[in-house]
Amino acid sequence: MKQRLDEWIDKGKVDTDYHERQFRAPYRSTVTFCDWLDEIGLMVSNRELRIIDLCSGQGANIYYMSKRYPKSTFLGIDINAELVDKGNEFFRDNGITNCSLAVGDIYNLDAKYIGGFQGVLSFQTLSWLPEYESPIKAMTKLEPQWIAITSLFYDGQISCTINVKEYDDSLKIQRESFYNVYSLPLVTKCLKISGFNNCQVTPFEIDIDLPKPNKKLMGTYTEKLEDGHRMQISGPLLMPWFFIAASK
Ligand SMILES: C[S@@+](CC[C@H](N)C(=O)[O-])C[C@H]1O[C@@H](n2cnc3c(N)ncnc32)[C@H](O)[C@@H]1O
Fold first, then answer.
1. For residue 245, pLDDT beyond 60
2. What is the pTM of this model?
3. What is the 3 state secondary structure string of 157-209?
4. What residue owns the CA closest to ligand 1's atom 13?
5. Which end of the chain is more exposed for a tag (fewer CB within 10 A), N or C?
6. Given ligand 1 and candidates 5, 30, 78, which is best to mutate, with the most ligand atoms within 8 Å of its CB?
């Protein structure tokens, strides 16, 4: 299935607030993901690691990580040149020297990146691409020691291709995007085929309440269950967030 690039590049379609607000306060998923990467020993605050974040947006996640892991260096790659310029300007203006962004396409990454990084990151993007296999192959092709991904996954042998269409008040399509849920056994098999045999997986359970948006469009909110756990919901969908970490 071909990627619809307009949703990522067309000015009117890019949700700039999604990228900006993470600089003000990182998502809970980003903080919890880094806690987990620490716990399993992939990120270490006093080590000099070189990390690449694929489909990094404006770079808010690597900005958060650059403060948490000050000795490491971070490169974010994104297809949207405007997000890349804005992010680099932010890093320059704020004296952040261990973060930078470059324009690139995950389906056609520059060979100069191969072998240059210990860790490959992918935050909340895989489910928004048409399928998981080519992006995962692009990650393994970089020959890192490990790959860590946050996305929507199912802990069983089912994958769902979900094409979401959001309409404006006059019922014209205003946004079309994937919210695919990929089978964990299939995704980990794909990583193992490329030699990333040690796959660790954990569900992401959010620890704060998120209010329901006023507009009945996509936008994550939480509902609390009787046992205290929170379900994450966006529009008509449950959001089964998981973290995956794979190493050789
Ligand atoms: C849902 S956003 C996630 C951004 C960021 N990882 C975050 O967590 O805030 C997906 C990002 O993927 C980028 N993207 C989409 N297709 C891409 C491609 N083929 N190559 C590189 N980046 C791409 C978009 O421009 C967008 O910034």
1. yes
2. 0.96
3. CCCECCEEEEECCCCCEEEEEECCEEEHHHHHHHHHHCCCCEEEEEECCCCCC
4. 55
5. N
6. 78
